[in-house]
Specification:
Length: 626
């Protein structure tokens, strides 16, 4: 009675220690390692270990492999019948905790061929999932019919064993295994019951630790999400601030770029008005100075037009409204015309401008948007000349490889610092302020260039070394040639010598109409100016003009309706119609409506006269391609 009472008190003491530790700590490793040590001492066994399912094990060969080949689990109980093929494969594990009575007892933590001794089939797992405990008093007698298993147990110094399952939330988590190594042992019912109570408390500790780990993982995940979200918001704020600063700098630069030519136009024109706009004024300027004044006004106007066109073109491209006008043209002629455009500017800056055109005659004809390709080259050459100091060199090369035209602009200019290169093709981005003050510009040219190159399905690359120069290389693949608008056939005819004709201008803006009428009258044409669409339709049949220039936005009836109405009229000699447009979309729409050609506003004299003469009468002012 005294021994039984003492044993019961010791069991309660150990249970209290385990439950107290569970309440005090959520570190599973601390709970299990301490429980294994204390329980081994209470049971007075040689070795106590925890076998945990689902723990990966390295595959390392072992000298016992031959002995254990094909063996069933000696640690569990008698081998059952072969498992059914429909049942799931066994879940394997590893020994994770161990307590030994002395160093003479072999440690199984380092023994890696665990699957030979602790592999479970689904039947074994189901057996232990029900909470059953397995007792073997003497393995020599129990496994006498299985010499291979018995030899393996002898190698591990196992003579008797007691196995209890650890079940967590109705799932088999692992096994608590006690080994007697020196002699057989009869396991008491009280020991089995006590071991079962211990595993129940360990199950609670494991479940609490799993919940704690889940909470910690969720906490870590939430903290990471908050951190990532905070960083994303911070990055977005920085990006917004950078974009706002870039736009502010762009607006400041654009203000400067616009004010400079406007100052020239307004200042010089005001000077001329004061000299010649008042009656009785006798003071006059020398002819040479008058020409210089007019040239400055003209150049400033072209500068303003280029700035506005860059902004409009970029906005059209980004809005997806730009449509390529595909045609066939000569690459060598395009390059020569482009170089000719910059000869004077390069000469003024004392920069040597050269062309290298190694194009075979059979590759000279190319299919793309002639105007856009020329615009790409103009932007690159303009930048190259702008940023190349005196006595520098700018070279334009072009060649064809595999139906792809390759344009290369190389300069010996100031170069681009490495830290600024990622911003080169960004909108509203330029070099640092000292460069802006020295060289000017809006920062849109290269952004637009990249957009136009990619619109062709091409690529643009560059290399640059500070104070040595920059090389831009553009690859533009040949485009498929689409069928041309039937109304545009007259634009492709050769120029002919014809008498000057009678023209009707339908335009409600007085200044624009006056400019057109004066240009055409000076060129020898008879011109009639009409201000609204309804009057124009009634007057055209009476006037019988050779050609009509029509603005697209008129009071009464718009230009598109006028073009369609005139095209529907059946006459022996159809009228030639030119639309006055401002955007590419208007150009496309007017050609679809039936216009023979288009002239962009603001009106350029040579452009107007050449377009009129392309219609088949009058003497051409200049023969240009594209």
């Amino acid at each position: 009675m005294d021994d039984a009472l003492h044993e019961q008190l010791e069991q309660e003491r150990l249970l209290n220690q385990v439950t107290t530790q569970i309440r005090q700590s959520l570190e599973l490793s601390v709970i299990l390692s301490t429980a294994v040590e204390q329980l081994r001492g209470f049971l007075q066994v040689d070795r106590l270990l925890i076998y945990q399912l689902g723990v990966p094990r390295p595959k390392i060969s072992d000298p016992l492999e031959d002995l254990s080949s094909g063996a069933e689990d000696p640690e569990l109980f008698d081998p059952p019948a072969a498992p059914s093929p429909e049942k799931p494969p066994p879940l394997l594990g590893n020994i994770t905790y161990e307590a030994r009575s002395s160093d003479t007892i072999l440690s199984l933590l380092e023994w890696r061929e665990i699957d030979r001794c602790f592999s479970e089939t689904s039947e074994y797992q189901e057996y232990y999932r029900r909470g059953s405990i397995r007792c073997i008093a003497d393995v020599e007698a129990y496994y006498r019919s299985c010499p291979c298993l018995l030899e393996m147990l002898r190698q591990k110094q196992v003579r008797a064993k007691l196995v209890a399952p650890i079940i967590v939330q109705a799932e088999l988590w692992g096994l608590l295994i006690a080994h007697q190594c020196g002699q057989p042992r009869e396991w008491k019912n009280s020991e089995q019951k006590f071991l079962k109570k211990i595993t129940e408390h360990l199950s609670i500790a494991i479940y609490q630790a799993q919940l704690y780990a889940q909470v910690q993982q969720q906490k870590h995940t939430l903290e990471k999400r908050v951190k990532d979200r905070t960083q994303a918001l911070h990055d977005a704020l920085l990006a917004a601030q950078c974009a706002n600063r870039a736009k502010s700098e762009f607006l400041a630069t654009m203000s400067h770029e616009l004010r400079t030519p406007l100052t020239h136009v307004i200042g010089i024109s005001s000077t001329l008005l004061r000299l010649y706009g008042q009656s009785g004024t006798t003071r006059t300027l020398p002819v040479e100075k008058q020409v210089n004044y007019l040239q400055t006004i003209h150049d400033s106007g072209e500068h303003l037009l280029a700035l506005i066109n860059d902004i409009l073109d970029l906005s059209q491209v980004e809005a997806g409204k730009t449509v390529l006008k595909i045609s066939e043209f000569s690459l060598s002629k395009l390059i020569n015309q482009t170089l000719h455009t910059f000869r004077d500017r390069a000469k003024q800056r004392n920069v040597h401008l050269a062309g290298d055109i190694p194009i075979r005659p059979e590759c000279d004809r190319f299919i793309a948007d002639h105007r856009r390709v020329r615009q790409i080259l103009l932007n690159l050459l303009s930048n190259a000349i702008k940023f190349t100091p005196e006595n520098g060199r700018v070279t334009l090369r072009v060649w064809v490889e595999n139906k792809t035209a390759i344009f290369q602009v190389e300069d010996t200019g100031i170069g681009i610092p490495e830290e600024q290169q990622p911003l080169l093709f960004e909108k509203f981005q330029q070099l640092d302020s000292p460069y802006r003050r020295q060289y000017g510009g809006t920062g849109l040219g290269l952004a637009l260039t990249k957009q136009l190159v990619e619109l062709h399905g091409g690529t643009i690359e560059f290399t640059s070394v500070v104070n040595k120069g920059t090389t831009f290389t553009v690859h533009i693949p040949a485009q498929p040639l689409v069928k041309k608008n039937p109304y545009k056939t007259s634009l492709q005819t050769d120029y002919t010598e014809s008498p000057q004709g009678r023209l009707v201008v339908i335009e409600d803006d007085e200044e624009t109409a006056t400019l057109i009428c004066e240009l055409l009258t000076a060129a020898g044409y008879q011109v009639v100016w009409l201000m609204d669409g309804v009057t124009a339709l009634r007057s055209i049949e009476l006037l019988q003009p050779d050609a009509i220039l029509v603005d697209l936005y008129l009071p009464g009836q718009n230009g598109y309706d006028i073009i369609r109405h005139l095209r529907e009229e059946t006459t022996a000699d159809p009228l030639k119609i030119i639309a006055l447009t401002t955007t590419e979309a208007e150009r496309e729409r007017s050609l679809t409506a039936g216009a023979d050609g288009c002239i962009n506003k603001p009106i350029l004299p040579n452009q107007l006269l050449n377009q009129i003469e392309k219609l088949g009468f009058g003497k051409p002012a200049q023969n240009t391609e594209g």
